[in-house]
Every structure is written in structure tokens, then in C-alpha cells.
Amino acid sequence: MRILIVEDDRMLAAGLAMMVEGAGHEVVGHAVTVRAAMDLARAHTPDLTLMDIDLGLGGSGIAAARGMRKHHGLTSLFVTEHPERARQAPDAALGVLVKPYGNDAVRATLDAASLLLAGGQVSAMDLPSGLEIFPREPKPAHQPAPAAGIGIEMGR
């Protein structure tokens, strides 16, 4: 997968990038602000964004994840030490990986994300410690259009 890392701590971002690349994925960029994240997302179209929630002066990772989904159709996964805040925004991301994390957790997280993005399912028992996948809203069933000339009259 092509991964964008959005993290204001440059040391954490560098370590995460090494783990992502070690798992066989490509890091397409690193951003420390919402604006830079949106620019990189537009330029590189990543498969997944690993998004810190608190970007310090760089803005809100939750807002960035929502913007990426709305404007670019991109999926984010929160990577944070504030899972309670991530759980309040399940519409914005696939799930949350809690800091601190290790190499094995990152590798298993990327495997699970890849499977989910391909339309597969992952059992909660198969998730690494620290990874929580948010429930997906079911897609609405296709409603056929009413036949011409048939209507419902209200108010009589």
C-alpha cells in the first residue's frame, strides 16, 4: 500500500516510516500540519493515511481525516495516545492504533487495513494489541425508483 504519515513528532514519524517500509509498503510522504497533509494527499493519492489526532499547532488530525475522506475519498487510521478522542470520531477513520506501538503491531495493523480496504473482514481476535477497528455503517440497500404515475397523496 501507499501510506501517508501525518504526525507532528518527527522522530515518531521517522520510526513509523521505517516500520511501514519494513512491512513492504511505500511511504508517499510525511506531513506535520493539516494543510500539508491535504496537499500531499492530493498530490500522491495514498491508499491509507496514518493520522495522529493531535498535531499541536498543525491542527486537528480528526478534521484532516474528515477532509481527506470528503474531498479525496481517502481512508485514514488514527495513530494516537488518545484513543478516547478517536472513538468519538468513528466517521473519520477506519480505526485507531494506540501509541506506543511496536513493529509487529504496525505490520499487523497494515495487514488488517489492507484486507479491510479490499472489502474483506477481520476478526477482532486477529487484531494486534492496541488496534481497534471502528464499526462500518452498512451501505444503504438500493431503493428502486417508484414507477411513473404512482404516487402517495398526503393530507386528505
Automatic annotation (TrEMBL):
Modified residues (4-aspartylphosphate): D52
Domain Response regulatory: 2-114
Transmembrane segments: none
InterPro entries per record: CheY-like_superfamily, Sig_transdc_resp-reg_receiver, WalR-like
SUPFAM superfamilies: CheY-like (SSF52172)
UniProt signal peptide: none
Cellular-component GO terms for this entry: cytosol; protein-DNA complex
Molecular functions (GO terms): phosphorelay response regulator activity; transcription cis-regulatory region binding
Keyword annotations: DNA-binding, Phosphoprotein, Transcription, Transcription regulation, Two-component regulatory system
One Pfam family hit: Response_reg
GO biological process: regulation of DNA-templated transcription
Region (Disordered): 134-156
Protein name, per record: Response regulatory domain-containing protein
Species name: Skermanella aerolata
